[in-house]
Amino acid sequence: MEQRTPIQTEKEKGDRAGYLFVLPYIIFFLVFTAYPLIFSFILVFHRWNIVGPMQWIGLGNFATLLHDPLFWKSLWNTARFLIIHIPLQIAVALVLAEILNQHIRFRGFFRAAFFLPVVISGVVVTILWQQLYSTDTGLINLSLSKLGLSRVPWLTSTTLAMPSIAIMATWKNVGFYVVLFLAGLQSVPRNLYEVAELDGASKIQQFLKITIPVINPVVVLVVILSTINGFSLFIEPYVMTSGGPLNSTLSTFLYIYKEAFSFYKMGYAASMGFVLAAVILSVVLVQRKIVETDTYT
Amino acid sequence: MAHVLLKNVYKIFDNQVVAAKDVTLEVKDREFMVWVGPSGCGKSTILRLIAGLESLSRGEIYIDNVLINHIPPKDRDIAMVFQNYALYPHMTVYQNLAFALKLRKRSKTEIDRRVREAADILGIGDLLHRKPKALSGGERQRVAVGRAIVRQPKVFLFDEPLSNLDAKLRVQMRAEISKLHSRLEATMIYVTHDQVEAMTMGERIAVIQDGIVQQIEIPLNLYNSPANLFVAGFIGSPPMNVFQGSIENNTFVGKDIRVSMPQTFQGKLERTTEVVLGIRPEDIHDISAEPRLSERSIVRATAEVIELMGNEIFLYLRKGDTPFMTRVSPQTQISMGETIDVIFDLSKLHLFDRETGNRI
């Protein structure tokens, strides 16, 4: 026993150092993830305006939510956004990644250029696009009128505002997905294309029948990530349209924010947050079912 | 079936690496030809030139007398088997085999018949619904070969197909590919760095080094009369013993070894005096075994390393500063540091020009 003691002390020392190393993350997790999560879960069953005391209302928030047309509209708005944004994002990212994976000139420059919007602040990008989209002075409309075409009310039409935001969001985020797809493309063994070429597959057939199925895990990842990111649509409508015109760009996230910090309905906002999380989870599960193939089993 | 001809073929990569230098060779109809050489000698690149996966720098390639330089790979009617199998990971074995036929818009019944035929030949009939990940290395290689067979191509190209398999499986697959060749009677080109594979499988062998074809011969001739020092050293395991020296009065004089040259060499030796003498380990005999040799030369040497192989002994000897080795019978009584008299079989000597390395 006496001989073992120093070994145990060594081990304990190692353990302590290990805990010390993960401590910053654990603190971060407790303060910014665990605490808010638990607190908002408590909020769900209360009415609270931040300053006053909390008032227990049971499932009252959910009852309100069920009959709140604006909540459902905001979900529908988000869905409209996603229906345009996700396919567009994947298509553009995949095509760009495929091009950037070829031996083209200035490849490094283009790779960096497409990634740039991802790192630029969302507010900056949004203000920039607000200018581009402006009905009277925007660059896009100026160009259109130069070409003799009529001006398009990009952000002021209830039908066009959300698609406009979806296009902008795609431009902003596509670089990130390009990087993911690039990594996927580079993991496809070159031999597969050589065999396919000898087998008689054209370049397009190679892309559709070899590339896409082989990088399916990346496609799944991109679909899920862009769905989750898409559901958290906030900065763009907040800065560009404040949810207008006529609430046509009011995303669920923006609605939650407004209820919480404009009307101080913290309990109600928290309830919507949980419902939204459940919606996201179910959408992602369905997506996985549809998109994921058992490539490697 | 087909006949392949390479005429003055060059391949120079952008970084100036020369992978093929004036390669001219002919693969006969229904021949099984092996290209062997050390890694990076250019053999795989030349194979890829035939497949169309690399572009020629210069020269001409013909299949059945048709120039194929500018014909795209898919129209060359060639199938290739890669070292890493290159199976489509997302397709079942069946789909892997059927892929090329589907692209060529063959009927479902024909595809099914050909896939099952190929699967039967290779004994992978019960794997058809598995995906590559669920297969062993040997099974994957079979599928890769099967994918080539279903195409019924003019030419089969094998690029080191057995290198990723373990030793035992390699021996087994070696025999199977040879059998396959006699069954299909197809033209096959087989690239390997393994001289045992080359010797056992090839009807003819081309030895390649630095992008240059060193010698093309049937296996035994390659072994018995290597065209140059490189071939002599590359073919045969353990390799041929070589001694630097010169010829004086019909006698080879090395640093520590003197051997009188046999009749057959006389007359050939007037022009060259600086030579390399080669003799294979099995042509050096233990004197106590009393070999009956008409022309012989006795050398006394010290045993440095003794490797017992069971059926024979690899004996590493040294005379002065000159090391050499011999394979002797397992009955030979010798221990380390002892001296032993060995006999060089002079009828089996090889002589090379020291400057050019060519056989004299």
Descriptive terms for the model:
heterodimer, A: 297 residues, MetI-like fold, 2 domains, two-stranded antiparallel ribbon, 1% strand, B: 360 residues, alpha+beta, Rossmann fold, OB fold (Dihydrolipoamide Acetyltransferase, E2P), six-stranded mixed sheet, five-stranded antiparallel sheet
What is the compact description of this entry?
Chain A is mainly α and 297 residues long. Helices cover 73% and strands 1% of the residues of chain A. A two-stranded antiparallel sheet of chain A has the order 1-2.
Please write out the topology.
The complex is a heterodimer of chains A (297) and B (360).
Chain A: H1 4-43, E1 46-47, E2 55-56, H2 60-66, H3 69-100, H4 107-119, H5 122-133, H6 139-146, H7 161-186, H8 190-199, H9 203-214, H10 216-231, H11 235-240, H12 252-261, H13 266-291
Antiparallel strand pairs in A: 1-2
Helix pairs in contact in A: 1-13, 2-13, 3-7, 3-10, 3-12, 4-7, 7-10, 10-13, 12-13
Chain B: E1 4-12, E2 18-27, E3 32-36, H1 43-51, E4 58-63, E5 66-67, E6 78-81, H2 93-103, H3 108-122, H4 137-151, E7 155-159, H5 167-184, E8 187-192, H6 195-201, E9 204-209, E10 212-217, H7 219-224, H8 229-234, E11 241-248, E12 251-254, E13 258-260, E14 274-279, E15 284-286, E16 296-308, E17 313-319, E18 322-328, E19 339-345, E20 350-353
Parallel strand pairs in B: 3-8, 3-9, 6-7, 7-8
Antiparallel strand pairs in B: 1-2, 1-4, 4-5, 9-10, 11-12, 11-14, 12-13, 14-20, 15-19, 16-17, 16-19, 17-18
Helix pairs in contact in B: 2-3, 2-4, 3-4
